[in-house]
Amino acid sequence: MQEMMKIYCKENNNVVLKAIPGHFITPNSHVNYYLDMTTIKSRLSEASATAGVLARQISATTIVDTIVCIDGCEIIGAFLAEELTKAGIYSLNSHKTIYIVAPEHVNTGQLVFRENLQMMIKGKNVLLLMASATTGQTVMKAAQTLNYYGATISGISTIFSAATSSMGIPINSIFSIRDIPDYKTYDPEGCSLCRDNIPIDAFANAYGYSSIR
Known about the structure:
This protein is an alpha/beta fold. The chain is built from six helices and 14 strands. It has a single domain, classed as Rossmann fold (3-Layer(aba) Sandwich).
């Protein structure tokens, strides 16, 4: 792995994305950067600042009853709900508040909401909050799950996204490939890094990475 670089959010320089060049295997693809969002998701000041940036992107346009958090984004989700509430975001909930929930991952990779959470999903306008959207497979899986439970996806917000939309829904992101122009994602069966015999540095997912060298 090469030296980490820091990318500062233009709207708030307290939000910092750490990008590590290398060859990484993720659950859905191979990528040439590991995007470290540990402090963004876990440090109070950064999570709050991140939520503020995301809230400004959607507060005037999006109805939010429930925030569904993927990739360990629950702390950001709580701050985001607070920011949207302060901004007067429109909610159809009878309690006039925003739910923050996270799905359970079962062994097959399927996302599940238990019975005690389903009332926060069914018939609700759901904002999907994710750490990153690269191949779009996680968005599609989440969308299928939410559709099954009777929700409507009213928006998608991410810290980093390689795409501008998924399934016709715009993706609002803080960072994009404009910030990392040489960011690449590869299908595992056709990875250019593997073809060029570039060693794998680590296995990675939204929670971190495990070095194999």
